[in-house]
Design goal:
heterodimer; B: three-stranded antiparallel beta sheet; 11 helices; 62% helix; ATP_synthase_B_chain (chain A); transmembrane (chain A); transmembrane helix (chain A)
């Protein structure tokens, strides 16, 4: 049957034309098309890879920042701690110094008061003795104007005085 | 599909044979669907567009005939049309013969050759314009025809070539793409009314299959041939028997490619023409209510078949090439292991790993 017996002429033309078509398409169609497709896919892939890398870098940067922040926070805490201790220490020493100073002043004041008191007391004693003497003298002057009274006084003194 | 084809032949030729003696006088005018369908499906030296009461509208092509000893003769096929004879030539059922019975080689531009030239031009124009699109818009999204055809190119590359051939697929991409789009475009063009049935012609499909065979053989490696002449994994006494079987399979593959494409496309055409012929067989316009929906259904189905057959042909081509390039590491290891067993036929069956294989 003519349907299933290949015609020689058509076979010849088919071979010739198909090979020409193949060469034409291979050179002018498939090569640029496949090349461009590959190029585009490569560029997409590299863009994706770059995005991934950027993400990674971003993450690293973020992690670095966080570490820096944590370090700074720690440093601040440490500094504050230090400052507090130092301030406390300083206050303590200041307090101790002030206390000793105050004690010293009080001591000096006491001593001065004591000295003053002693001097005052001595002066009071002297003044009292002087006053007593003056009073005694004046009394005596008036009493002894009478000679009997003088004799009586001398006698009373003499009696008081024991001769031993 | 082949069965369907022959059944259809019986269906539409038998009633005609049965009718002819009964009708008698009408036989000259009687509609012979088998003849009409074959005429539409087969190649021709003229392009018969349509016929009216005023005559046939036909384009005639040049006939190029080569006679050994007499040389070339070129003339219009009009001169041998409708049973006329010219010089030494005449057409017998579209087959160019000589009056004196000497041999002649027919290189005529037939309907199929004309269709082939036109479809090739279409392919070149379409794909060079697509390629221009890529050059003009480097690194940009595809547009228009380019964006329509790009998925097919990518599909052939990723799903057919990469998966079937492997890492060396790039060398075979131009051939696979040409085959795919050639078959697809010609299948579609063959579906247009009045067009030639190019991919349903056995010469065309045979030539494509032979090219696939040649490409396969040229890309074959040692493992491919050792698999044919010394099949690994088979008992030694069976190996000589396997040689003709394996050799036959080398040639059966392209033959199956030839017949699959040819039969599928031709069968589709025959079915559509058969539904249309029903109208003329029953001589009633009411048959159109049956023929039109069925014909439309088959036509739409043929649209699917046209890309499916292109895909199958391309996929099988890629698989044959991939099979010829494959390294049979596992099988070779087995062969060595068997030889070390002293070639015992049954000994290896006790080994669980071989038995499982």
């Amino acid at each position: 049957m003519s349907l299933i017996t290949p015609e020689f002429g058509l076979l010849f033309w088919q071979t010739l034309i198909f090979l020409i078509l193949f060469l034409l398409l291979a050179k002018f169609a498939w090569k640029p098309i496949l090349g461009s497709l590959k190029e585009r896919e490569d560029s997409i892939e590299s863009a994706l890879r770059m995005a991934d890398q950027a993400k990674l870098e971003m993450q690293q940067l973020k992690a670095g920042n966080e570490k820096l922040l944590a370090d700074a926070r720690q440093e601040r805490d440490r500094m504050m701690q230090e400052a507090t201790t130092m301030a406390n220490q300083h206050r303590e020493t200041e307090k101790a110094r002030a206390t000793s100073e105050a004690n010293h002043i009080v001591q000096q004041a006491r001593e001065a008061i004591q000295t003053e008191k002693n001097a005052a007391l001595a002066e009071v004693k002297n003044t009292a003795a002087q006053l007593s003497l003056d009073i005694a003298e004046r009394i005596l002057r008036r009493e002894l104007a009478d000679p009997t009274a003088q004799t009586q006084l001398v006698d009373s003194y003499l009696k008081e005085v024991k001769l031993n | 599909m082949k069965h369907l084809l022959s059944i259809l032949f019986f269906l539409f030729t038998l009633p005609v044979f049965a009718q002819e003696p009964a009708k008698g006088a009408e036989s000259a005018e009687a509609f012979n669907p088998g003849e009409v369908i074959l005429h539409h499906v087969a190649d021709s030296h003229e392009w018969h567009w349509f016929s009216t009461d005023n005559g046939n509208f036909v384009s005639y092509f040049p006939i190029i005939a080569y006679q050994p000893g007499k040389g070339m003769s070129v003339f219009s096929s009009e001169k041998v049309a409708e049973g006329k004879s010219y010089q030494n030539f005449k057409l017998e059922e579209e087959h160019l013969t000589t009056l004196d019975g000497s041999t002649v080689y027919d290189f005529s531009i037939t309907k199929n050759v004309a269709a082939l030239i036109m479809s090739s031009l279409v392919l070149v124009i379409v794909f060079t314009s697509v390629a221009r699109g890529y050059r003009r818009r480097v690194g940009q999204a595809p547009t228009g025809l380019q964006s329509f055809l790009e998925p097919f190119v990518v599909f052939i590359r990723d799903e057919v070539a990469k998966k079937s051939i492997g890492p060396k697929y790039e060398r075979y991409m131009p051939y696979l793409l040409t085959v795919f789009f050639f078959i697809w475009f010609n299948n579609l063009l063959g579906l247009t009314p009045g067009a030639a049935n190019l991919t349903g012609n056995v010469a065309v499909t045979a030539m494509l299959a032979i090219l696939t065979l040649i490409v396969t053989l040229f890309s074959s490696n040692k493992a491919y041939w050792s698999h044919i002449f010394w099949t690994p994994g088979v008992p030694l006494w069976l190996r000589p028997i396997m040689i003709p079987v394996e050799l036959a399979s080398v040639f059966i593959k392209p033959i199956s490619l030839t017949i699959r494409l040819f039969a599928n496309i031709t069968a589709g055409h025959i079915i559509i023409l058969s539904f249309i012929s029903l109208i003329f067989i029953f001589r009633s316009p009411w048959t159109g209510f049956l023929s039109v929906p069925f014909g439309l259904f088959i036509s739409v189905l043929e649209l699917l078949v046209s890309i499916l057959q292109a895909y199958i042909f391309t996929l099988l081509t890629a698989m044959y090439i991939g099979g010829a390039m494959e390294e049979h590491h596992h099988d070779e290891d087995l062969g060595i292991a068997e030889q070390s067993h002293g070639g015992s036929d049954l000994g290896h069956l006790t080994r669980p790993d071989v038995a499982a294989h």
